[in-house]
Amino acid sequence: MPQPLQDLPWRALDREALEFHFNPRVSVPDFARYDQERTGLNEAALAECSPWLDIPYGDHPLHSLDIYPAQPGGGGEEGAVHVFFHGGYWRALDKANFAFIGGALAERGITTVIPNYELCPASTLDEVVASARAAFAWICANIHRYGASRDKISLSGHSAGAHLSAAILSADWSGDPSIPSALTGVLLVSGVFDPSPAMMTSLNDDLRLSREMADRNNMENCTPRLKAPVTLVAGALEPAHWQDMTVRYAEQLRRAGYAQVDMHMLPGCHHFNILDGYLDEHGIMRKAIPGAAGDPS
């Protein structure tokens, strides 16, 4: 069972410590430079991969996704798909900021899909989660139109995107025949799996979380169902209480009977530079995406 809220160690932190442990922009003050440094990579991916952009999966203005088609000669399994959900604490950023991931994986012969989703405060966290699940359902139902297979889907997400990926694992998909019975792999990067601590920080000015909404969307309280090998990573330089969310969610997966759950704290990584792992063909993160790693020789 999930650890009772009152027993979680972060409950003893004061407001300043909560901001440090649960607001990554506080623990990494120069966070903005990492997006800026990837601008050239994003532009190159958009120019070289000829992606399909802004494909709608629903009626909301943020219900759209980009598809980076598998490039010939990349070596990936034919028909393989990877779906990446970006972070931003459910309140910020855009799929265009992560084109570099689409480009890197498409070069390996993997069709890569990067959705947008609804954001707080215009939408509630319930609606954010529902929109991410809707994006995933659309991908499963339609990816064959783009030369790929719903039966060869892997999934990843960073920060809030890891939470949304976990929400996809926990959804009841039994009524949707387009959803595969299992995924080929899941990579959860520096995830914020429990929204509860954010309620006690300045982030809640945008998130507007209630106790009930945080509980509904706490992935430690939601049984994962959609099976896959799962790799969880966090940065060894991230605050200890942020790392602990990854540790606790790994245990949740094991309790749910997931047979392959690997967890790593990556040396030299904090919440923002950890995304460079998507570019390292021989690193742990790329190895967790079927077909995406380089030749180990």
Q: What is the mean pLDDT?
A: 94
Profile the largest sheet.
8 strands, mixed
Global structural class? alpha/beta
Radius of gyration: 18 Å
Shape by Cα distribution = globular
What oligomeric assembly is this protein in?
A: single chain
Q: N- to C-terminal separation?
A: 43 Å
Side by side, the strands of the main sheet go: 1-2-4-3-5-6-7-8
Structure in words:
An eight-stranded mixed sheet has the order 1-2-4-3-5-6-7-8, with helices on both faces. The chain contains eleven helices and eight strands. The mean pLDDT is 94. The longest helix is centred in the middle third of the chain and has 18 residues, at 125-142. By secondary structure, the protein is α/β, with parallel strands linked by helices. Helix content is 32%, strand content 14%.
How is the topology of this model organized?
Elements: H1 15-22, H2 24-27, H3 32-37, H4 39-48, E1 52-56, E2 64-68, E3 81-85, H5 99-107, E4 111-115, H6 125-142, E5 153-158, H7 160-170, E6 185-189, H8 204-207, H9 211-216, E7 230-235, H10 240-255, E8 261-266, H11 284-287
Parallel strand pairs: 3-4, 3-5, 5-6, 6-7, 7-8
Antiparallel strand pairs: 1-2, 2-4
Helix pairs in contact: 4-5, 6-7
